[in-house]
Design goal:
The chain is of the alpha+beta class and 638 residues long. The protein contains twelve helices and 27 strands. The strands form eight sheets. Strands 5, 6, 10, 11, 13, 14 and 17 form a seven-stranded antiparallel β-sheet that branches. Strands 9-8-7-12 form a four-stranded antiparallel β-sheet, with no helix packed on it.
């Protein structure tokens, strides 16, 4: 048949159309056919064309014995070459059968045709084609790389307990407020210097005698006399005598205190005159002049003497009683000042005279006799209690360590802090890691520890968390583990303060609120997170302010586990608890909660409540029951 022709092969009642090359050696070439159905039809037609599917042929072949080196056409085991019993063994040795099988292939007259049909149908020889031989060759060259294994014994904690509480002391800054007065008290005193009598001296006058007192410098005085005639000439009959000094005085001034000043100076001298004009005595002060008349005319003579002299200084003392002196220093701020009395004062001096005094201008009187001042103090002491509060510590007591007028600079606060957890039971785990190198059958590392590093506490914690999520889910806000703002207050003034942030504020005899007592219980139950401190009571005087009462603000939650997840989960989300003024105690949204990495959280604080002395079988059953209650479709659930 020429190429391109086709034939009809009739098998039973079905006509097959065989497309492809003409038959050679009794069959058609099917390898060029790409359509799978047509290729199958071609291969089937080839087999039919050989007569291999003929009923009579098949029937005859049913009684043939495999030719393992025996006679062709043999119908029983006697001519098959080897007894059938030699091909099999009841001890598992099938070597004879394998040998016979290998010998049967070349002796089977149909083997070549069957192989050729397979090549035509599949497109290549399964034993000799390049893809097979190449893969076999490559596989034979591969040498498996063994895995490397390293092991170590590790002590793993299986039970925890709360560590003993510790007591720590910290410092907290305080404040002060002082109302005080500045008052000026006036006093006057006299300092007197006296002397006498002096030496006498003669005189000569024509008719008149003048006596005067000069003050050439602050503390020196001169007393002089002068004789004149009726016409005003200077002692014509006495030889023209001018002013003659007969007494001089010098005084040492008194020493003044800083708050003193001289307000009056008096000098006086008593003069006694005797002679032809008669006798007289008089007293003169600084800058005064006395005129005496002699009744006789012509030159007259006599004697003159300073019988006594006296100088007095009247000293004003402004005693400033500064009752605010103790706070005029670092840390204190003048908040207000009010003058209560600045009117001039009429003061009677020791000599009986009066003088008007104005209030002193010096500080701190500042032109005022009586002044009210308000001072405020804010401590610069570092607050070392805030970090302890943030870590869960609670106040036990507080005392003023450094008092200041009207308040306290530094408080010494005693804190009670948890010691975390301690391990009470350990087990040894053989931790092994099996690692394969690149190119090996297992090119990664596997944990082959024995026993597996499973932790009952972690499992129990996760189970408890699942239960608490159900109990602590707010259906109105769709949030998980929602908290509540709570706060407590304490005074910052005085040597003894009212501290409602103490560990047990119920002992404050009703001065603390129910919320503050409730907060103390939350802190003891480890359900509170410290947010910060703010001032709730300010004293405003003028433009300055000081804090008289502070408030510690917390977010409290319904359980310790909720607090742990909130405290460690918010940093993962880049969130905080806000500020004391605006705390953020909201719960997690469903999306936020789903994004938390619980494997990175430390639950050891919660582990301490879970005992590892348990019946493992009962615990496993209990956990499985709880898990199945949450998800009945989970594996191993009934």
């Amino acid at each position: 048949m020429r190429p391109g022709h086709f034939i009809h092969v009739v098998v039973g009642c079905v006509a097959w159309v065989i497309l492809g090359a003409p038959l050679q050696q009794g069959y058609a070439q099917c390898s060029g056919i790409t359509d799978p159905l047509q290729k199958a039809q071609c291969a089937t037609a080839n087999m039919q064309g050989t007569g291999a599917l003929d009923r009579n042929t098949i029937s005859n072949q049913q009684g043939a014995v495999p030719q393992y080196g025996g006679t062709n056409g043999c119908r029983d085991a006697a001519c098959a070459g080897t007894p059938a019993t030699g091909y099999y063994s009841n001890n598992g040795d099938v070597s004879n059968l394998n040998t016979a099988t290998g010998a049967a292939y070349p002796s089977d007259p149909n083997a070549a045709r069957v192989q050729q049909m397979g090549v035509d149908a599949g497109g290549w020889n399964l034993t000799t084609s390049s893809p097979v031989t190449t893969s076999n060759t490559v596989a034979s060259t591969i040498t498996p790389i063994p895995n490397s294994q390293s092991c170590s014994d590790v002590n793993v904690c299986t039970a925890w307990a709360p560590a003993p509480l510790t007591t720590q002391t910290c410092s907290r800054p305080g404040n002060g407020r002082l109302a005080c007065q500045v008052e000026v008290v006036n006093t006057v005193r006299d300092v007197v210097s006296t002397g006498g009598p002096g030496a006498g001296q003669g005189w000569c006058v024509d008719h008149y005698m003048y006596v005067r007192v000069l003050n050439p410098s602050a503390d020196s005085y001169i007393v002089q006399w002068l004789g004149t005639d009726p016409g005003g000439g200077q002692g014509v009959n006495c030889g023209g005598i001018g002013w003659r000094t007969f007494a001089s005085f010098s005084f040492t001034p008194p020493t003044l205190a800083p708050d003193e000043q001289i307000v009056l100076v008096n000098f006086s001298v008593s003069v006694s005159i005797g002679g032809q004009c008669g006798s007289t005595s008089f007293s003169m002060s600084s800058g005064s002049r006395q005129v005496l008349t002699c009744g006789a005319s012509g030159a007259q003579s006599g004697s003159i003497v300073a019988t006594s002299w006296r100088k007095s200084w009247t000293i004003r003392k402004d005693a400033i009683d500064d009752r605010c002196a103790g706070v005029r220093g670092a840390g204190w701020t003048l908040m207000s000042t009010t003058c209560l009395d600045n009117a001039p004062r009429l003061v009677t001096l020791p000599d009986g005279s009066t003088q008007t005094f104005q209030p002193p201008t010096v500080t701190p009187a500042n032109s005022c006799w009586l002044r009210d001042e308000q001072w405020g103090f804010t401590s610069s002491t570092q607050d070392t209690c805030a970090p302890l509060l943030s870590s869960g510590c609670t106040d036990v007591s507080s005392t003023c360590a450094v008092p200041v007028p009207g308040g306290c600079d530094t408080y010494s606060v005693t804190m009670q802090c948890g010691g975390g957890t301690i391990c009470t039971q350990q087990t040894v785990v053989r931790q092994c890691t099996s690692c394969g190198s690149p190119g090996s059958y297992v090119p990664f590392c596997m944990d082959t520890s024995s026993p597996p590093n499973q932790n009952f506490q972690i499992s129990a914690t996760m189970m408890a968390m699942a239960q608490e999520v159900q109990n602590d889910f707010d259906k109105d806000t769709l949030q998980i583990f929602t908290g509540r703002r709570k706060s407590c207050t304490y005074s910052t003034l005085g040597t003894v303060i009212v501290d409602c942030c103490a560990d047990d504020p119920s002992q404050m005899f009703g001065t603390c609120s129910d919320i503050e007592v409730e907060l103390a219980g939350d802190k003891r139950a480890k359900q509170a997170i410290f947010v910060g401190t703010m001032c709730t009571e300010w004293w405003s005087i003028g433009f300055a302010q000081i804090c008289a009462k502070k408030e510690d603000v917390y977010c409290t939650f319904n359980s310790q586990l909720a607090r742990i997840i909130q405290q460690q989960g918010r940093p993962q989300l880049g969130q905080t608890f806000g500020t004391p003024e605006v705390p953020d105690c909201d719960g997690f949204t469903i999306t936020e909660f789903a994004s938390l990495n619980f494997q990175a959280m430390d639950f050891s604080e919660y582990f301490s409540q879970i005992s590892s002395n348990f019946d493992s079988s009962a615990a496993a059953t209990n956990l499985r029951q709880k898990a199945c209650a949450l998800d009945p479709s989970a594996p191993n659930c009934p």
